[in-house]
Design brief:
InterPro entries: AAA+_ATPase, ABC_transporter-like_ATP-bd, ABC_transporter-like_CS, P-loop_NTPase. The chain has about 300 residues and is an alpha/beta fold. The protein contains ten helices and 13 strands. The strands form three sheets. A six-stranded mixed beta sheet has the order 5-6-7-3-8-9. Strands 11-12-10-13 form a four-stranded antiparallel beta sheet, with helices on one face.
Length: about 300
């Protein structure tokens, strides 16, 4: 089942389309990294999924078309609305009572412990670090036992230790409670360590959706081949092994980039058999950051 399915979504502000023809598909149980530059439309999409902003056009379907109880969706968008003079437990209790949470005291203590804030005692929130405030925001979003967690830039401003703690908490929630998580972020190195799926937005449109396996394959080893007759070499290789999970891209400089399940020895043998003069054959790996940055460009669609 797709927990989030979006079709032809659009949003206009003052006559300007900030989201246009947007599509998204989030499978149940995924940790979905929603990636894009600042201003690309990530927050607007997240707010529309959460029901905080009304779309101009298009359709958002949650939980396969069921009418969801609002408690099935936990939201942390931008900064959590925290009362600075309260401590973490009292802040949690205030929201738990408003939500009508069963056994609120137990629920609040358990969630605070789960996000690593169980020992903060009476310390007021105004004395919390940014990482502690973000984790408290996630604990608040988890009140009511949501099946979908929407997190907008939860890693922003966190130091490496706090980011690691946040990442570990989210993975544990996903694995132990089966919560589907959508995280909008541009902190790619952290997303790489926890996401099972990705979507990339550029100028209000989805340019690509893929699994972590897709990213790993496309950022893995590739082979650069340069020959005296690149067009002929490309045709020979496509005819010989193009149906075997091997992909070819002709570069403007005349080289051929080979990726997928290729064998360099097999490629060399094919070219030799057909009298192709090989001028270069070198292995290369694509940097993940460069890969995503290229997808963030509007022309990548």
């Amino acid at each position: 089942m797709e927990v989030v399915a979006i079709r032809a979504l659009a949003k206009r502000y003052a006559g300007r389309r900030v989201i246009d023809g947007f599509e998204m598909h989030v499978p149940q149980g995924a940790i979905y990294g929603f990636v894009g530059k600042n201003g690309a439309g990530k927050s607007t999409v997240m707010k529309m999924i959460a029901g905080l902003v009304t779309p101009t056009d298009g359709e958002i379907t949650l939980f396969g078309g069921q009418t969801p109880d609002v408690r099935r969706i936990g939201v942390l968008i931008e900064h959590p609305g925290l009362l600075p003079n309260l401590n973490a437990y009292d802040m949690m209790m205030t929201q738990a009572i408003a939500f009508g949470v069963t056994k609120p005291k137990t629920a609040c203590r358990d969630l605070l412990a789960q996000v690593g804030l169980g020992e903060t005692g009476r310390k007021p929130i105004k004395g919390f670090s940014l990482g502690m405030k973000q984790r408290l925001g996630i604990a608040l979003a988890l009140l009511g036992g949501p099946d979908l967690l929407l997190l907008d830039e939860p890693l922003n401003g966190l130091d490496p230790e706090a980011a690691r703690a946040m990442r570990n908490s989210l993975v544990e929630l996903n694995q132990t409670r089966g919560i589907t998580i959508v995280i909008s972020s541009h902190v790619l190195d952290q997303l790489e360590r926890m996401c099972t799926h990705y979507g990339v937005i550029a100028s209000g449109r989805m340019t690509r959706e893929m699994t972590a396996g897709d990213v790993e394959r496309e950022c893995g080893q590739s082979l650069r081949v340069r020959t005296a007759e690149p067009a002929k070499s490309l045709a020979l290789l496509e005819d010989a092994i193009g149906a075997d999970g091997v992909r070819f891209v002709a570069e403007p400089d005349g080289s051929i980039i080979v990726s997928g399940a290729f064998s360099a020895d097999r490629i060399a043998a094919i070219l030799h058999e057909h009298g192709q003069e090989v001028r270069e054959m070198s292995r290369q790996a694509k940097d993940m950051e460069d890969y995503f940055v290229s997808l963030m460009e509007p022309s990548a669609r």
